[in-house]
TrEMBL record:
UniProt keyword terms in alphabetical order: Coiled coil, SH3 domain
Compositional bias annotation for Basic residues: 126-137
Superkingdom of source: Eukaryota
Keyword Coiled coil annotated: yes
Region (Disordered): 111-153, 232-278
One Pfam family here: HR1_TOCA
Biased composition (Pro residues): 261-271
Taxonomic classification: Eukaryota, Metazoa, Cnidaria, Anthozoa, Octocorallia
PROSITE patterns, per database record: SH3
InterPro entries attached to this UniProt entry: AH/BAR_dom_sf, HR1_TOCA, SH3-like_dom_sf, SH3_domain
This protein's name: Cdc42-interacting 4 homolog
Listed transmembrane segments: none
Length: 343
């Protein structure tokens, strides 16, 4: 009896499982699988449709570009037919010619032959003048260390522009540093607990001297470039460091002192020979007072400070803009506009 009951139970379980399997199979083949195929078919149809649109757009764009390409090819063909080698060579020569003239013939000099002089003819010493050549200030060792005068105008312009770019970047860096120090000093002044504002003054003075020096070099090369381009030089930057020199006695008597903004520009570097009036001898007992600070940065120049008393060795009789002076044991040239002769 028990075995028969177990057999019936097994049949019933098998029947239920078979029914579930058949239902799942029917659902798969009649519903799920057709829906999947429909989705795949729809996606493929959309892909084909989009591909057709892309082909249409590609053909349309290509049809617009082809005339442009053909026009470019025609222009290239036309240009290739008018190539002129000699003309191109001449254009290159004109663009790179220096404008320097070739040197002349070297004259023959017979050394060792004494100069002849008619007997009894006195030597006129008054008509014999010594010729002294002022150093060509601002033209040697400029840029790459070469003689600036021997370079062609293009090389001079390139060197000046390079130096202007370098000193402009240096001045900008120093100016940013100065602004930061000034802000820090303001913060310290408002709150002494954060720091001592007096400690910033020394850094500001060092920064001011470096900034003034950089601006002076920048202005110097800007003047060189302006002279090469026959244009007006830019104005000089203001001085940030303190004025160490006093007021010259000639001006102190009248209580007048020119502000730093009215300091005249140094003249362009002289390059011609200058004759003295007194047989090449320096003028004695002529003194002058320095009106403005001047930093001698080139060969032949001398650094002076406002208020100093100097001895004039050579006056600016030819209006070159430079006067030779003696400061202690050192001699050199300073701008004529920077000094005032003693009465």
């Amino acid at each position: 009896m028990e075995k028969g009951q177990q057999c019936e139970n097994a049949k019933e379980a098998y029947r239920e499982q078979l029914t579930k399997t058949n239902n799942s199979q029917t659902l798969h083949y009649s519903t799920n699988f057709p829906q999947l195929n429909d989705a795949l078919q729809k996606g493929e149809e959309e892909r084909v449709a989009k591909y057709g649109v892309l082909l249409s757009q590609y053909s349309e764009v290509h049809s617009k570009v082809i005339p442009i390409i053909n026009k470019c090819l025609e222009g290239m063909k036309t240009s290739s037919q008018i190539v002129n080698g000699p003309k191109d060579s001449q254009t290159l020569i004109d663009a790179n010619k220096t404008g320097l003239s070739p040197p002349g013939d070297i004259p023959f000099e017979e050394y060792g032959k004494p100069a002849t002089q008619q007997p009894g003819t006195p030597v006129d010493k008054k008509r014999t003048k010594k010729v002294k050549t002022k150093p060509n200030k601002g033209t040697k060792n400029v840029g790459d260390g070469n003689d600036f005068q021997s370079l062609n105008p293009g090389e001079k312009t390139r060197i000046c522009k390079k130096k202007i770019e370098e000193y402009s970047a240096e001045s900008a860096t120093l100016w940013s540093e100065r602004q930061g120090l000034e802000k820090m000093m303001d913060v310290y002044s408002q709150n002494n607990a954060l720091g001592d504002p007096e400690s910033i003054k020394g850094q500001l003075e060092v920064n001011a001297k470096a900034l003034d020096k950089s601006n002076e070099e920048l202005h110097k090369y800007q003047c060189y470039l302006a002279a090469l381009q026959n244009s007006e030089p830019p104005p000089r930057q203001p001085f940030y460091s303190g004025q160490t020199g006093g007021v010259p006695p000639a001006q102190a008597a009248n209580g007048v002192a020119n502000p730093p903004g009215n300091i005249p520009e140094p003249p362009p570097p002289p390059g011609s020979a200058v004759m003295d009036q007194d047989d090449g001898e320096f003028e004695d007992d002529i003194r002058c007072y320095v009106l403005y600070d001047f930093q001698g940065s080139n060969d032949g120049e001398i650094t002076v400070s406002a208020g100093e008393e100097l001895i004039v060795l050579e006056r600016d009789i030819d209006n070159t803009g430079w006067t030779q002076v003696l400061k202690g044991d050192d001699e050199g040239y300073v701008p004529t506009a920077y000094i005032q002769l003693s009465e």
